[in-house]
Amino acid sequence: MIVDALRVFVTVAEQRHFSRAGELLNLSQPGVSLHIRNLENELGSKLLHRSPKAVRLTEAGAVLYKHAKQILAHYEEAAQEIRLLRDEVTGSLILGASFTIGEYLLPGRLAEFARQYPQVNLQVTIGNTEEIISAVKGNQLDIGFIEGETNDMELDIIPYMKDEMIITAAAGHPLAGEMIVDSGMLQNQIWVLRETGSGTRAYSDHFLQEGQLTVKRSYVFNSSQGVKEAVAAGLGLSLLSRWIVRKELASGEMVELRTRQKLPERDFLIIRRKEHQTAMAIRVFLEKLLTAEKA
Length: 295
Known about the structure:
This is Transcriptional regulator, LysR family. By secondary structure, this protein is of the alpha/beta class.
């Protein structure tokens, strides 16, 4: 079947290696070579430059790769729609999310989807906002969830939900007993921050600069969980999503420092490549996710 040959060709092109492609496809190296040779014979053009270390696309191979990706996506979409006629949703769903969404919001949504559509293969990558944007643009993710803003012209951007950011501290922090914390009280404090590239870090930097707050010292962690644990241990203050600390606030382990002015909300966004192909599993997941949020 031509679809099988195209799938082998695309895998070899992306892995740049016959053996690695064979391992992913459960094919022997001679089997992989046979598919490539049959395609080259059918098209009358050499598709790959071969070397002992790697393979790379010829000019004809680059043309076929672009169209093969589209053909395979259309084939998968057709297969999904046919399965849907039998009340089935199958296939794969490869998601990426920034830490706040990936660790505290998405798991519950995915669990509900998996219970309803157990035949869909789910895969989730968690990284900071910049990493998720890069992976979506690099065709490594079907959908990305990010916190903050992006104006990247290569992406379709779908508003998902609002997120409330709050100033947090350990229950034993000197400011924990204050009813209202003004800007003077926030001067020369120790802050616990996310790494550069994080949506939370961008928001924190903006907050500190806008308030002209002098930072006595800062500690940097590359996960929201790390920041939360550090704050709970009394290391310093932090700006965190209410999603992250809701359990600790309820238990009294951490407190919210209230200011006279409400802190601005930020957006959670869904991002996709503009030239994306919508497989059925992706379409159903997005429809259910957005419908549930509006309900």
